Every structure is written in structure tokens, then in C-alpha cells.
Amino acid sequence: MDIQTLTFIIVGLTFALYIAIAVWSRAGSTNDFYVASGGVHPVMNGMATAADWMSAASFISMAGIISFAGYDGSVYLMGWTGGYVLLALCLAPYLRKFGKFTVPDFIGDRYYSQTARTIAVICAILISFTYIAGQMRGVGVVFSRFLEVEIATGVFIGAVIVFFYTVLGGMKGITYTQVAQYCVLAFAYLVPAIFISIYMTGHFLPQTGFGATIAEGVAGEGQYLLQRLDGLSEELGLAAYTSGVKSKIDVFAITAALMVGTAGLPHVIVRFFTVPKVRDARRSAGWALVFISVVYLTAPSIAAFAKVNLINTVNGPDLTGVKYEQAPSWIKTWEQTGLITWEDKNDDGRMFYSGDERNEMTVDRDIMVLANPEIADLPAWVVALVAAGGVAAALSTSAGLLLVISTSVSHDLLKRTLAPNITDRQELMWARIAAGLAIALSTWFGINPPGFVAQVVAFAFGLAAASFFPAIILGIFYKRMNSTGAIAGMVVGVLFTLAYIIYFKFMNPAANNAENWLFGISPEGIGTLGMLINFAVSYIVHKLTGDAPQATQDLVESIRYPKGAGVATSH
Amino acid sequence: MAFKSEELAKAYWRENIGLVLKLLAVWFLVSYGFGIILVDWLNQITFFGFKLGFWFAQQGSIITFVILIFIYIKRMAALDNKYEVHED
Question: Are A421 and A86 in contact (CB under 8 A)?
């Protein structure tokens, strides 16, 4: 059976599984989705959170970026896991005690202000939208490869599926579907990694494998894998793998923006509102990170293996280049998607990959994980499994985000703020219109991406870091913070960050280099500065306008200990 | 008021903040410290096939994060019990 048929079968089977679970778990709980998930064990909730959290960016793009960036790619590894420490220690238990469903609800009630609520809603939409644009690109990459179509067509097909999945399925709160999606995703990620690790180094665990020596029969045998990679990189004019080229301040800023942004993402925070107890909110965060780590500790090893394999396949073991006619089939199938190109500059009929003028290949980073099993010559079912994993990751996250966008527009913005008198039917209609618009816009960004999947997603984190994180932290740990201060901080923080990103990414991309950056911080890391500005502005404005009312201060006191946390209420 | 006195409420919060700050200090050290600021210095040390700084950036920090959260869960449960503000 060829890869394409197998892919259809395996992706089809996983879809059938998700739908079956959705139908089954829905039948058992006709009451409110939110409360229904309240009865879920923290381990299960952690697993579901992990599936919700790990998107196309984590699954498809991250290892690819690390593969090409080496040490510099560590920002994603540390950033997207370290945020859970902040979440568990500084946010989740208190927000759970507060007992509302959405982040705009917390901001609106804590800062006793409709303006604050509205600004929070706008930020939530902006963040979720940026995030979903990155997902669409990822979905497109998967579909374009396995249906053998252009990337634009792939994005379009993915968009249609995500739209129906969200609008018809309404998957939110159906925790068990996400548990299944996590299992598919993690299995699909680990299987090829273990295969490749055994083949390359003889180690069963990829995590120790990429620090081990290369096995017999593989080019460079007996050498440490990472040493070989550094050596190859030097010979080919690429940056050394285990040390980076980014400046320290930029690495620091990007890591911080991703960590703090993680703790400020509305669709992540929401998961901790719905567990039954404060203690469970803490435990859920811990378990979520355990399950996320399974994938994140594997990613850097996949990255290193894939890079070595890519160089071996394209340049050959003696580094003279492999004849194009002898190129393995995966190079040709990926060429059809336009994500790999070969241009025979020196007319020798051989491919060559390097970091200097000898280079004849362009390889899109987003394909590394998907192509990896083929590069390592693994059986066809493994290739198909990885496709199913990629689809699971992208769909679960996109669907969740679309629901955040549509409920923000229809519920938080229209029903709670602008038009309190609309009927339930109208509210639902607006939710669907919002979802449709969001997906249309994100499809456009998926076709014309301003960066690789993980980079687009990184902007969402910057915006979350610069808007929500300071407002929530101050709301919990500084009870005298007033509404004027928090509003001013959010507005200045998010506008600054957004302006910086738009200027360097869209208005003047030519100037997007370290010389023109503020303090040498790239647009990916600017959220860290935005966050500091937010904190500073909030504090100064608060000092000028006086303390929050006593009632609010008492409210803050009451969220600081677990006792008396009831079930989360809608409003 | 869940606490018997204002002093107890303050003491609970103080202990809570103390614990969080201690754990965040470790959080900062393994990621920003070992993985970024001191990375070149630590990279002079190799253990197995890894340069130590590189290992912290791509493996060690993540493992530490998981351990930190579970220490927090355990210590906070004990603290809640001590001040009798745990859930039923």
C-alpha cells in the first residue's frame, strides 16, 4: 500500500475515534459543558490541556526550527514549558478560586470596569487570532504533502475542515476527545523518534540518543552525534549547532516573552477555571507540563537527528553531493508542494546543501518533522501516523481558539457589553459569523505567512505577555492596584508590542535586523519589553490615581486561600 | 474570613510568597541562568555527548520545571492544612 492510501486510512480512523468519543461523552453529560469537565481527574485534565496546548507549531514546526537554528531554537523549548511554572505558581490557583470562566471576566470584575472588560476582550481576540493564523499554515503544510497539492490549496482544505469541525462539532469542554488527541499526537511523535534513535545511535531513548555516539554503519560512526553535527555545520558554512548566533539579550527576551505569554494565553488559562478544586488547578498544571514534556524533551533529539540525516541524504556520506536521479522519493514528493527546491547551480547533476554559495537546496523548516520518517527510511505506516498526529495537533488547537474568538465576540463583547438585548439565536449567529471571519482571515495569513509557523505563533505570546500577564499578576498580588492603572498598562503595553511587530514585519521588513531593533530585541521577543512597560505604566498611573476600593481589596484577599472555592459560575 | 485572625492570614500569605519566590529562583537559575546567561561557560564542561549549557537549554531546564511544580503542589497542600484553609 502506498503512503497516501495509508495516510487516508490512519487519519480517517483517528477522526472516527474523536467523533465517537465526542458523541459518547456528550450523551453522558447534557448539562453545561464547563461544569461537565469539572468532574475530570487532574491527570486527565492535564492530558487534555496538553493536547489543547500543543499545536501545529509544537508538533510540526518546532523541531524543524531547532533543526535549523540549533541552540537558538532552545527559546521555544524553555519558553513554552517554563510558562507552566508561572501558571501553576502565580495564576492558576487564584484564578480558580475567583471562579469565573473567561479572562475578560476576571479583568472586568477585578478592576470593576466595563472598559477594562472590553479592552481584555479585544486583546483576547487579537491574541487568539494571531495564534490561529499560525495554525492554518501548519494544517496547510500537512494537507499539501499528503494530498500532493500546492500549499495554498492545502491551507484552504484545512480551513474548510477546521470550520466544520468547530461550528458543527463544538468540541470545547469535551475533555475526553482531547485526551484521545493527546495520545495520538504523543504516539505519533515518539514512534519515529525512537526508531531513528535506535538506528542512528543504538539508544532506545531519543533524549539520551542525541548525546550518544553514532552507531555502526551510519556515516561518522563512533563520533558523538552532536560533535559530528557541529563539525558538519562548520564544513558546510552553517552556524555551529550547539551554540547560537542570536544575541544573548534577544534569546533572553524571546524566552521571557514565550514564558510569560504562555501564562497569559486566554485559551490556556480557561482550562484551570473549570477543575473542581483549587488543589486540582495546581495539580492539573503539573500534569499538563508532564505530558507536554514528553513531546518537548523529544523535539530537540528529532531536530538533531533530522539535521544529520538531511545532510547525509543530500550531500552523501563523503559530502560531494548525491546525484539527483538517485535522490530518494521523498525529495521529489516534497518538491511538488514547493517546500523543497533544488537548483543545479554548477550543472553537475548533484544536489548540495550548505550555508554558503555552494548551496543548491531550499528546505522549508516546517517539513522537517513530517519528512523525518521518510528521510530515515521508516515504514510507510510511521509516515502516515505522523500525518495523523500533525492533523490532531492542528485541529484541536484551532478549534479551541476559534471558539475563544467566537464566544469573545458574541458573548463577552456583544451580549455583555455592546448589545445586552440580543436573543440567544442572534448570539449564536454572531458566534458563527465571527468564526467564519476569523477563519477566512487566518486562511489568508496561512497562505501568505509573515514567518514560519512557530514564529507567527510567537507573536501571539508577545501580545499576551504585554497585555494580560501584568494585569492578572497585579490583580492577584497587588490588591491596591486600581482600574485606571491596569487599563493604561494594558493599552500601552499591547499597542507598543503590536506597533513594533507591525513595523518590522509588515511596514518595513528591510529594516528587520539587530542594528535597528530596540536594545537588540527582535519582534519575537519584544513582548518582554511590552510587559515591563505595562507593569511600569500601571504602577505609575495607580500612584497618581489612588487605591482600588475596599470591596475590591477584600475580594482579592479572598482569592488568596483555597477554602470555600465553589464550582465555577457563568456570571 | 477563613482565618482565625488577621495575623494568621498574613502569615499564610507570607509563607506562600516565600515558597513561590524560592521556587521561582530555581526556575530562573536553570533556564535564564544555566541555559542563557552562563551557557558559554557551562559549555566548556561536557558530560556524555552533551555540552552542559546546551543540555540545560534543551533538556535540563524542562525536567527541573516539572519537578518544581510538583514540589509546589506538595508544599502548598501542607501549608493549606497547617492554616486550615484547605478545601473539604
Answer: no
